[in-house]
Amino acid sequence: NLTINEGEILGFLYSKGIKPDGVQTLDKDMVKMICKEHEVEVIDANPVKFEEMAKKKEILDEDDLDKLQERPPVLTIMGHVDHGKTTLLDHIRKSKVAASEAGGITQGIGAYKVMIPVDGKLQPCVFLDTPGHEAFGAMRARGARVTDIAIIVVAADDGIRPQTKEAIAHAKAAGVPIVITINKIDKDGANPERVMQELSSIGLMPEDWGGDVPMVQISALKGENIDDLLETVMLVAELQELKANPDRNAKGTVIEAGLDKSKGPVATFIVQNGTLKRGDVVVCGQAFGKVRALFDDGGKRVDEAGPSIPVQVIGLSNVPIAGDEFEVVTSLDIAREKAEKRAESLWNEHISAKAGDGKVTLSSLASAGSVGKLSGLDLHQLNIIMKVDLQGSIEAIMQALQVLPREKCHFEVPIASYRRSPGSVKSYAEKRGVEIRLYRVIYELIDDVRNAMEGLLEPVE
Ligand code: GDP
Question: In the chain, which end has fewer C-beta atoms inside a 10 angstrom radius, N or C?
Answer without folding.
Answer: N
